[in-house]
Amino acid sequence: EFFAVFVSFFKKPGIAVILGFLLLYRFPEAQLLKLASPFLLDPVEQGGLGLSTKAVGIAYGTVGLTALTLGGLAGGWVISRVGLKRALWPLVLAMHVPNVAFLVLALTHPTSLAVISAALAVEQFGYGLGFTAYLMYMIHVAEGPQKTAHYAICTGFMALGMMIPGMWSGWLQDHLGYVSFFVWVLVATVPSFLMAALIRVPENFGRKEDTA
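and the corresponding structure tokens:
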């Protein structure tokens, strides 16, 4: 039965596109997240912002996490109103476009903690929005008699999609520097956009039907 669960998952229609989406949707974020804290902490002469550990805790750990949570809640609300199919592209753009914030920070090196916190809040809010679409798509993929097991398999591929790109991000940044690395992160959104264009989502999936 254990193997039957895996076999049934890999027999799903369009499984190649499904796996491609699960692995590549967060391809840029998988690399960005590994370097976010080092970028904030590294001294300016090394291309970072030179923040203290306390300042990083405030900007990224408190303000950023709050924005991420609010973005996730907002994404869930949007999908419940219009469905995943209609919300997909706005949420995909909301996830990837704010990555520009890190490039702007690397180019300008602001010293104001409020400015840095605001930039991180925008990026994290967008990430929360876009990640909600990812979770809803996994729910769609897992639908069927073995829903729980198939969702668990999806989360495994989700973790793999974060782990593999993150393995080379530090090496890449060492060779490119922060500015060029953040430019690369923007280029790395292309596979995510391609996979988002290829997936198929039923009409009104995730939309909360009015009972009134």
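(Above: one complete record from the training split.) The chain has a mean pLDDT of 93.
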